[in-house]
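Human: I wish I could look at a protein chain and see how it folds. This is the protein in question:
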Amino acid sequence: MKFLTVAFWKALALKYGVYALAFNAFIEAIFFPIPPDVLLITLCLTNPENSFLYAIVATLFSSLGGVVGYYVGYFGGKPLAERFFGEEKVKKVHRLYESYESVIILLAGFSPLPYKLFTVTSGVLFASLKKLFIFSLIGRGSRFFAEGALIYFFGEDVKNFALRNLNLISLIIGLLILVSFIIYRRYRKGVLP
């Protein structure tokens, strides 16, 4: 099970570059446990001048993988969910998810939780595939571009900080998005001046 180790994927990134990153970002959004951040950071540190190219590749292929994850949930998970929980309960959860799906997907891009949980769940709950793709591009892109930019501008100095605190940084950004969304919704409802 060597292929399930971070060291294996770092070595793969160094050997195959952007192709390994694209492959990893794609499969991680469907089922794979190693996040593309590992490869992205490795490549950015190796070739900082290409950091933004790597961020584009990770964003695009993670979002495309999210579409496949959606269909896995839609065709595989939806029938199972309806069988175990009943069609009415699934519809009720879908209506709740539908109200907040944009912010959920945005937060998923920053969350330390595996991204595939959100892509497959979006399919199970027959959420909007268009919103999933658009907000995946925004959420995942923000995360990957932030990592690429940090390394591009600060290089090796930021490596240890970014790797040690990646989940914390992601969580803080996610919370900022959530608070902004709540304020925006309250403002639209006329609760805030």
In short: Residues 2-188 form one domain.
